[in-house]
Amino acid sequence: MFIQRLCIIGVGLIGGSLARALRQAKAVGEIVGAGRREARLRKALELGVIDRYETALPIAVADADVVLVAVPLGAMGEVFAAIADYLPAQCVLTDVGSAKASVVSEVERVFGRAPANFVPGHPIAGTEQSGVEASFAELFQHRRVILTPLLETAAGAHDLIREMWATAGAEVVDMEVRHHDEVLAATSHLPHILAYTLVDTLARLDDRAEIFRYAAGGFRDFTRIASSDPQMWHDICLANRGPLLEMIEQFSRDLAGLAEAIGRGEGDAIMAVFQRAKHARDSLYLD
Amino acid sequence: MFIQRLCIIGVGLIGGSLARALRQAKAVGEIVGAGRREARLRKALELGVIDRYETALPIAVADADVVLVAVPLGAMGEVFAAIADYLPAQCVLTDVGSAKASVVSEVERVFGRAPANFVPGHPIAGTEQSGVEASFAELFQHRRVILTPLLETAAGAHDLIREMWATAGAEVVDMEVRHHDEVLAATSHLPHILAYTLVDTLARLDDRAEIFRYAAGGFRDFTRIASSDPQMWHDICLANRGPLLEMIEQFSRDLAGLAEAIGRGEGDAIMAVFQRAKHARDSLYLD
Fold first, then answer.
1. Which residues in B lie closer than 8 A to residue A186 (C-beta atoms)?
2. Cβ pairs A/B, distance under 8 A
C-alpha cells in the first residue's frame, strides 16, 4: 500500500496522527494539508506532519490520490461542496466522522449519489486532547477503525482505505451505517453526554467550589471525557441525534427505575443492577 | 500520637490500609482484627496486617484504646449493638462509613445518645478493589478524611482520631453531618449510580457483545467505578438515599433538558452545557 499524494482536510489530532503514522511506515509520498485556519496548517508544517498546505480546497485536492476529510461533522457538507467538482477521477474520498448516516447524507446531497470512490470511515481513537500538537503516530495502534462502505462503494477504494488504516496499526472492520451509529451512540456518545451533564450539574450547585474540592479519584476518571472539545461533541449530538436520543431515553428510564428502587428501599432490585453491571464490566476488562 | 491497642472491626481495604499505615509509622502497639468471616481475618493475620483476631466482638473490643468500625453501612447498627456494653470507658469509637447521618442515627439508636468518645469519620479513599489483599499503607496519603464530630463529641476524642488519620498521611477536615452527605452524594454516590446504570443499560441491549467490543478508551475510564463492590454501594444507596435521590433528580432534569435541546437542534444550548462542563473540569484538574 502506497499513497502517492494524500490530501488531509482538517489537520487535527486524527488527521495529524494518520499523517505521522503513514509517513513513519513510508506508505505515503506527499502529504498536503488543507483547512480554513492557516495558523494551524503552518503549525502542522512546522511539526513536519505535512509537506505543504493549501487553504483553497479546490487546489488542495488537485492530483490527490486519497482525500481524507477530518473536520468536525458540522463542517463536512461544506467541505464536500467545495471539493466535489475538483476531485480527480481516480481519487478515493474518505472521512473520519464519528457518526456515519449524517456524513453519507451530506455526500449524497452534494454529489447526487455517493461516488464509487467514497469510503465512509471512523477511527475509534482519540483522547480528550485535540489539535495537531496532540497528534502522534501510534494513536491508531490496536484501535479499531470502522468502515461503513455503501452499495455504491467500489471494492478497490474500500481495499485501499482498509489498507491505509491497517498500515497505521489499526484493526479495520466493516459495519452497516445505521448499526455503526447505534453502537457508537451507546458506547461513546451517551457516556460523553452523561459526563458533560454530571460535571455541569455539579458546577451549577451553590457549593460547587466545595463540591469539586471533595471530588476524589474515581470522579476524575469518570469525568475526564467532559474535557473533550465542545464543538466536536455539539456536532456529534446533532449529527447522530436519533440513535443518541434513543439511548438517552433508555438510560433515563433505567436510572428512574433504580431511583425508584432506592426510594422504596428495594435492596434486591438495587443489588441486581449493581451485580449485573459489575459482572459485565469485569468480564469486559481486566483492570 | 500513639494508640496502645487498636481494634479494627472489618479488616478490608480501608481497615487493612489504616493498620498498615499506622504500623509503618510506629504509631500503634497491638492491632486486633475482628469480624464475622474468620477466613478473612486469618488472611489479614497471615499478611501481617493484624497481630491477632477475635470473632467475638465483645472480646475483641476489651482493652481497646480505639475501636475502628470499617464494615459496610448496612452492618454498622448490628456491630454497635454487639459492642455497646463492652467498650472500655476511655475507648474512642470511630467509623469509616461513606454516609454519616445513617451511622450517627444507628449510634444514637443503640447508645441512647451519641457517646462523647464517638467520632464519625469518612476517609475519601479507596479503589474499585476491596478486601484486605488490596490494602496498602499509602492509600490515605494526600487523600482527605472528613470527620463529622457531633455536639456530644469530646475534644480529646476528636483530636485523637484527627491525629490518627494525619499519621496515616491524610489531610483531615471537619464537616457537618448533613453537609457531608450532600457533598458525597454529588461527588461520589451519583457518579457511581450513573456508571452502574450505564453499564447495566448497555449490558441489557440485544447486541451487547458487539456493543462492548466497540467500547473504547474513554468508556473504560468512565465505567471503572462500576467494578466496585455491589454490596457496599447497595448499602450506601440506602443509607444516603435522601441526598442521593435529590442529586439523581437534579441530574435527570438536566439530562432531560439537554436531550430536549438535542431533539430541537438547539446548538447554542448544547454548546453552553459542554463549554461550562469543560471549563469546570479543566479548572479542576490539569490532566
1. 202, 205, 211
2. 257
Domain boundary assignment for chain B:
3-175, 179-284
CB contact under 8 A, B267 and A208: no
Assembly ipTM: 0.90
Please give the Cα distance from A113 to A106 (Å, whole number): 10
pLDDT in tens, A218-235: 788 888 889 889 999 999
- B128·A218 Cβ contact <8 A: yes
Long-range contacts of A112-115 (CB under 8 A, 24+ apart): A113/A152, A114/A150, A114/A152, A114/A153, A115/A87, A115/A152
Beta strands B3-9 and B66-69 are parallel
Which grid cell is A287? 483492570
Mean pLDDT, chain A, as a whole number? Answer: 94
Please say if the pLDDT value at position A217 is more than 90.
no
Measured between beta carbons, the chain B residues lying within 8 angstroms of A147 are none
Element of type H or E holding B31: strand B28-34
- pLDDT tens-digit readout, B220-275: 888 888 988 999 999 999 999 999 999 999 999 999 999 999 999 999 999 999 99
Q: Can you tell me the distance from the alpha carbon of A103 to that of A80, in angstroms, rounded to the nearest whole number?
A: 10
Q: In chain B, which stretches have pLDDT less than 70? A: 216-217, 285-287
For residue B47, how many C-alpha atoms fall within 13 Å in the half-sphere facing its CB?
Answer: 25
**Inter-residue contact A211 to B187 (CB < 8 Å):** yes
Rounded to an integer, what distance in angstroms lies between the CA atom of residue B227 and that of residue A234?
A: 30
Q: How far apart are CA A69 and CA A76, in angstroms?
A: 8
Neighbours of B56 (CB within 10 A): 11
Backbone angles phi, psi at B144, to 5 degrees: -90, 140
Average pLDDT over residues A186-214: 90
**Beta-ladder partners of A8:** A33, A68
C-alpha grid cell, residue A178: 445505521
Helix H or strand E encompassing B6: strand B3-9
Domain at B3-175: CATH architecture? 3-Layer(aba) Sandwich (3.40)
Closest residue, chain A, to B146 (C-alpha): A214
User: Under CATH, which number does the domain A179-284 receive?
Assistant: 1.10.3660.10
Contact A183 B284 (CB under 8 A): no
State how far residue A239 is from chain B, nearest Cα, in angstroms. Answer: 10
H or E stretch at A117? none
Question: Per residue in A255-287, pLDDT tens?
Answer: 999 999 999 999 999 999 999 999 998 887 655
